[in-house]
Write a structure and sequence with these properties.
single chain, 278 residues, alpha/beta, 6-stranded mixed sheet, two-stranded parallel sheet, 10 strands, 30% helix, ferrous iron binding, oxidoreductase activity, acting on single donors with incorporation of molecular oxygen, incorporation of two atoms of oxygen, oxidoreductase, Xdiol_dOase_suB, Extradiol ring-cleavage dioxygenase class III enzyme subunit B domain-containing protein
Length: 278
């Protein structure tokens, strides 16, 4: 029987070097995830990765083991030998499709060949190294907006009660052309990162949905929206009254934020009614 979950997560996976580089604090954070951050073992995992873009929502519906996609270039050879062969989650994939279609998303597709890209398997390899939890991946739509992805999350909220861990995997800032091996943090990256943190922890989710017009330095922090949209899905799946918490923060390469968040679903409060008896 599935144990209901209350939490969803957004993980900044940063660089693929996270898979081997022990100097990255985010690597140690993810390795301690199931002992210090989230001790409940989910029955399956749904990952929304910024590295899978489609025009319409698509789930990978894999029977057997997920393939490990090495979708990065000019990195150390040992990284191309890494494998994360978690079981597929075809029942979860079909449930995702069912929930999205019943919530008004008319076109939802299944892909029975695509495995896990590095936005999924790199963090999962650190979080759940045994690779014994079934994993399904969901795509993002870069031609859509934050609200579209927030609504995807809202549609998927029932999965939490079914013991599914929903993880958005992207990056709090993601401008690869701005990365430098120099000390300090770029001011624009800091400004956007601080705005995002303050907006999330104060529950200003509508501002986050409209970050392009609300946030400072939005276009330079995210020249493309692919790595922020997974956050919107995790945020939406937690519920509009969810409490956001910053659970890790570190920087690399002058402009790459590894800020990661937990969204804790809060019970809806019933307005108190005072009854006055004469």
């Amino acid at each position: 029987m599935a144990v209901p979950l209350k939490e969803t997560f957004f993980i900044s996976h940063g660089s693929p070097m996270l898979s081997i580089d022990d100097s990255l604090p985010a690597r140690h954070f993810l390795k301690s995830f199931k002992e210090k951050v989230f001790t409940q073992k989910p029955n399956s995992i749904l990952v929304i990765s910024g590295h899978w873009e489609t025009s319409e929502p698509t789930v990978n519906c894999i029977t057997g083991l997920n393939d490990t996609i090495h979708d990065f270039y000019n990195f150390p050879q040992q990284m191309y030998q890494l494998q994360y062969q978690a079981p597929g989650a075809p029942k979860l994939a079909k449930r995702v499709k069912e929930l999205l279609k019943s919530s008004g998303f008319k076109q939802v597709h299944e892909d029975d060949k695509r495995g896990l890209d590095h936005g999924a398997w790199v963090p999962l390899m650190l979080m759940y190294p045994e690779a014994d939890i079934p994993v399904c991946q969901l795509s993002v739509q870069t031609k859509k907006d934050g609200t579209h992805h927030f609504n995807i999350g809202k549609a998927l909220a029932p999965l939490k009660k079914e013991g599914v861990l929903i993880v958005g995997s992207g990056s709090a800032t993601h401008n690869l052309r701005a990365l430098r091996d120099v000390p300090g943090v770029a001011s624009w990256a800091m400004d956007f990162d601080n705005w995002l943190k303050e907006s999330l922890v104060n529950g200003r989710y509508e501002d986050v949905n409209n970050y392009m017009t609300k946030a400072p330095c939005a276009k330079i922090a995210h020249p493309y929206p692919d790595h922020l949209y997974p956050l919107h899905v995790a945020m939406g799946a937690a519920g509009g009254n969810a409490k956001a918490e910053l659970i890790h923060h570190s920087w690399s390469k002058h402009a790459l934020s590894y800020a990661s968040y937990k969204f804790d679903s809060q019970p809806k409060t019933t307005p108190r009614v005072n009854i006055i008896v004469d």
